[in-house]
Amino acid sequence: MTISRTVNRYLSGGFAPVTEEVTALDLPVTGRIPAHLDGRYLRTGPNAFGVEDPAAHLWTLGDGMVHGVRIRDGRAEWYRNRWVRSSSVADRLGEPRRGTPVDPRMDMAPNVQVAGLDGRTFALLEGGIRPYELGYELDTVGPCDLGATPEGYSANAHSISDPHTRELHSLAFLYGSEHVQHIVMDGTGAVTRTTLIHTPGSPYMHDFALTERHVVLFDGPVVFSAAERATGIPFVWDGSHQARVGVMPRAGGAVRWFEVAAGLVGHTLNAYDDGTDVVIDVVRHPAGFDIKDVGLSRPTLDRWRIDLAAGKVREDRLDDRVQDFPRVGSRYVGRPYRYGYAAAAELYAPPTAPGDPRPHEGFSSALLKHDLVRGTTEAHEFGRFGAVGEGVFVPAESPAAEDDGYVMAYAHDAERGAADLVILSAQDFTGEPVARIHLPVRIPLGLHGNWVPGGPRGDRP
Ligand SMILES: [Fe+2]
Question: What predicted TM-score, i.e. pTM, was given to this entire model?
Answer without folding.
Answer: 0.94
